[in-house]
């Protein structure tokens, strides 16, 4: 586009070990090797931002831009847009961090992490379109309430720790966890959260410390101040947030940042002042395991299994009818065609609203027993055993994993769960199918070509041209080498 801050042109060439133990560039040789993920559809939109969205009120401002509400002109869906002024992104490090933020957001697929939809770029600004959360910042809710009950605080901390465990499993450190970076999904529901703002997030190398100070004074870990740290710095920040939820004030306070950081470095937590004498021993034990030296600090996965969390999380699914529908939909889901799988993925991640998926999110979190942000085979067997018996449940789950676990990582990820669990009639509505067709028809010609499929689904991995021609041939009814809207709808709705 001829601009100085382009982030849309780079992609990763994937390499793997061959039989001789040397690295070789990975390549897609067959249709079965294509992995469809939500990130396939998070792309730079080549249209003008103003032609696709209209702006609403401001939600916040920062050093190089602001966050506003925006409305998709065609669907009227409300979203949030993070707008960066390119004239304020003056150094190469800031440009690299911005590119890294988008790349990290594209890879994340967790019910408690904000979803990115697309981005735009013009000569003056970069626009990142994300999920909109009606409830505002957790920080404002803390100011309003002053304190949370232990049960409510545990509900929030469970979701936060689940998101952090998920990030750390991907070797990502957030580095700026604080109530201002946690949003509430609904205005009248302070217990469902989304983690946001990955502007300072970074990739980590296991067994090698990260360097470079990052974070906010009240929440920053002492080892970050020292300049060498690991992912455990996020757990310190979780401890500070938990302390504030229960007490209404931070454990390390001061009139200046230097005074605050001096107290952080000492690391001494005071449990003698109110309300701490009335807080449970389990809560203080977990806090002591979080607000401690890095080498003895608990991990996010272990914190999720702490007694204070497990005894206060209600794991009872109240909507039994919805659960039964989900379990039925999972059993009936089939990925018989790569294009159908791609369309299901697009609609589940780009067209469904928070309201559409609210009940499914609750069920996903409850089925995911250890809170790591994905559903294991064992999690599913436990659910199906109650209705099928142990032997039949194991057999049925094996079939489900084969169909639903499309990236073959051994788990049902959140997007895989959504696309397999959603009501098919709702997902494959005429409106959603037309929206999906327009996305695949990148040049607006009225037909989808092999090259257009390739641009969307290749995912930065080189591939043979015949792979995409094969997908087209499976759908192309009139033999013109392309897919028109009618052919598109016929294959997606086939056997429905």
Automatic annotation (TrEMBL):
<dbReference type="InterPro" id="IPR008271">
    <property type="entry name" value="Ser/Thr_kinase_AS"/>
</dbReference>
<feature type="domain" description="EF-hand">
    <location>
        <begin position="428"/>
        <end position="463"/>
    </location>
</feature>
<dbReference type="Pfam" id="PF00069">
    <property type="entry name" value="Pkinase"/>
</dbReference>
<feature type="domain" description="EF-hand">
    <location>
        <begin position="464"/>
        <end position="496"/>
    </location>
</feature>
<dbReference type="InterPro" id="IPR018247">
    <property type="entry name" value="EF_Hand_1_Ca_BS"/>
</dbReference>
<dbReference type="InterPro" id="IPR011992">
    <property type="entry name" value="EF-hand-dom_pair"/>
</dbReference>
<keyword id="KW-0472">Membrane</keyword>
<dbReference type="InterPro" id="IPR000719">
    <property type="entry name" value="Prot_kinase_dom"/>
</dbReference>
<comment type="similarity">
    <text>Belongs to the protein kinase superfamily. Ser/Thr protein kinase family. CDPK subfamily.</text>
</comment>
<keyword id="KW-0519">Myristate</keyword>
<keyword id="KW-1043">Host membrane</keyword>
<dbReference type="Pfam" id="PF13499">
    <property type="entry name" value="EF-hand_7"/>
</dbReference>
<keyword id="KW-0723">Serine/threonine-protein kinase</keyword>
<dbReference type="InterPro" id="IPR011009">
    <property type="entry name" value="Kinase-like_dom_sf"/>
</dbReference>
<keyword id="KW-0547">Nucleotide-binding</keyword>
<comment type="subunit">
    <text>Monomer.</text>
</comment>
<keyword id="KW-0808">Transferase</keyword>
<dbReference type="GO" id="GO:0004674">
    <property type="term" value="F:protein serine/threonine kinase activity"/>
</dbReference>
<keyword id="KW-0067">ATP-binding</keyword>
<dbReference type="GO" id="GO:0005524">
    <property type="term" value="F:ATP binding"/>
</dbReference>
<keyword id="KW-0418">Kinase</keyword>
<protein>
    <recommendedName>
        <fullName>Calcium-dependent protein kinase 1</fullName>
        <ecNumber>2.7.11.1</ecNumber>
    </recommendedName>
</protein>
<dbReference type="GO" id="GO:0005886">
    <property type="term" value="C:plasma membrane"/>
</dbReference>
<keyword id="KW-0969">Cilium</keyword>
<keyword id="KW-0966">Cell projection</keyword>
<feature type="domain" description="Protein kinase">
    <location>
        <begin position="53"/>
        <end position="309"/>
    </location>
</feature>
<dbReference type="GO" id="GO:0020002">
    <property type="term" value="C:host cell plasma membrane"/>
</dbReference>
<keyword id="KW-0479">Metal-binding</keyword>
<dbReference type="GO" id="GO:0031514">
    <property type="term" value="C:motile cilium"/>
</dbReference>
<feature type="binding site">
    <location>
        <position position="82"/>
    </location>
    <ligand>
        <name>ATP</name>
    </ligand>
</feature>
<dbReference type="InterPro" id="IPR002048">
    <property type="entry name" value="EF_hand_dom"/>
</dbReference>
<keyword id="KW-0677">Repeat</keyword>
<feature type="domain" description="EF-hand">
    <location>
        <begin position="355"/>
        <end position="390"/>
    </location>
</feature>
<keyword id="KW-1032">Host cell membrane</keyword>
<keyword id="KW-0564">Palmitate</keyword>
<keyword id="KW-0106">Calcium</keyword>
<comment type="function">
    <text>Calcium-dependent protein kinase which acts as a sensor and effector of intracellular Ca(2+) levels probably in part downstream of cGMP-activated PKG kinase. During the liver stage, involved in sporozoite motility and thus in sporozoite invasion of host hepatocytes, probably together with CDPK4 and CDPK5. In the mosquito midgut and during the last stage of male gamete exflagellation, may play a role in the rupture of the host erythrocyte membrane.</text>
</comment>
<dbReference type="InterPro" id="IPR017441">
    <property type="entry name" value="Protein_kinase_ATP_BS"/>
</dbReference>
<keyword id="KW-0449">Lipoprotein</keyword>
<keyword id="KW-0282">Flagellum</keyword>
<dbReference type="GO" id="GO:0005509">
    <property type="term" value="F:calcium ion binding"/>
</dbReference>
<dbReference type="InterPro" id="IPR050205">
    <property type="entry name" value="CDPK_Ser/Thr_kinases"/>
</dbReference>
């Amino acid at each position: 586009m001829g601009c100085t801050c382009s982030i849309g042109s780079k992609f990763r060439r994937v390499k793997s070990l061959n039989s001789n133990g040397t690295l070789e560039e990975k390549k897609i040789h067959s249709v079965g090797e294509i992995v469809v993920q939500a990130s396939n559809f998070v792309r730079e939109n080549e249209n003008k931002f103003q032609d696709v969205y209209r702006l609403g009120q401001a939600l916040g401002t920062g050093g190089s831009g602001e966050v506003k509400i925006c409305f998709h002109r065609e669907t009227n869906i409300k979203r949030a847009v993070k707008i960066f002024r390119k004239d304020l992104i003056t150094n190469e490090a800031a440009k690299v961090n911005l590119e890294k933020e988008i790349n990290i957001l594209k890879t994340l697929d967790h019910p408690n992490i904000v979803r990115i939809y697309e981005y735009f770029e013009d000569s003056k600004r970069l626009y990142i379109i994300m999920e909109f959360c009606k409830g505002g910042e957790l920080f404002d809710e803390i100011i309003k309430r002053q304190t949370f009950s232990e049960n409510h605080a545990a509900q929030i901390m469970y979701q936060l720790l689940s998101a952090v465990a998920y990030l750390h499993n991907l070797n990502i450190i957030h580095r700026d966890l604080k109530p201002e970076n946690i949003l509430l999904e609904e205005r009248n529901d302070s217990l469902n959260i989304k983690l946001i703002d990955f502007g300072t997030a970074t990739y980590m190398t296991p067994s090698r410390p990260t360097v470079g100070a990052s974070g906010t004074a009240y929440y920053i870990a002492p080892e970050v101040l020292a300049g060498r740290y690991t992912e455990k710095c996020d757990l310190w920040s979780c401890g500070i947030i938990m302390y504030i939820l229960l007490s209404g004030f931070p454990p390390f306070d001061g009139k200046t940042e230097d005074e605050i950081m001096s107290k952080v470095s000492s690391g001494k937590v005071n449990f003698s002042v109110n309300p701490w004498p009335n807080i449970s021993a389990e809560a203080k034990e977990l806090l002591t395991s979080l607000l401690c030296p890095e080498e003895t600090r608990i991990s996010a996965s272990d914190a999720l299994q702490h007694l204070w969390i497990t005894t206060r999380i209600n794991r009872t699914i109240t909507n039994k009818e919805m659960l039964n529908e989900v379990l039925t939909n999972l059993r009936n889901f089939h990925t018989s065609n790569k294009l159908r799988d791609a369309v299901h993925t697009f609609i589940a991640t780009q067209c469904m609203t928070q309201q559409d998926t609210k009940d499914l999110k609750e069920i996903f979190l409850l089925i995911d027993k250890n809170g790591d942000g994905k559903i294991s085979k064992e999690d599913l067997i436990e659910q199906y055993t109650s209705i099928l018996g142990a032997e039949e449940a194991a057999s049925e789950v094996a079939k489900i994993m084969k169909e639903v676990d499309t990236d073959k990582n051994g788990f049902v990820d959140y997007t895989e769960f959504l696309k397999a669990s959603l009501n098919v009639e709702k997902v494959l509505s005429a409106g959603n199918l037309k929206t999906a067709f327009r996305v695949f028809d990148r040049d607006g010609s009225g037909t989808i070509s092999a090259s257009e499929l390739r641009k969307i689904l290749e995912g930065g991995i080189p591939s043979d041209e015949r792979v995409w021609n094969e997908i087209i041939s499976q759908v192309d009814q009139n033999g013109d080498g392309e897919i028109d809207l009618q052919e598109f709808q016929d294959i997606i709705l086939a056997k429905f």
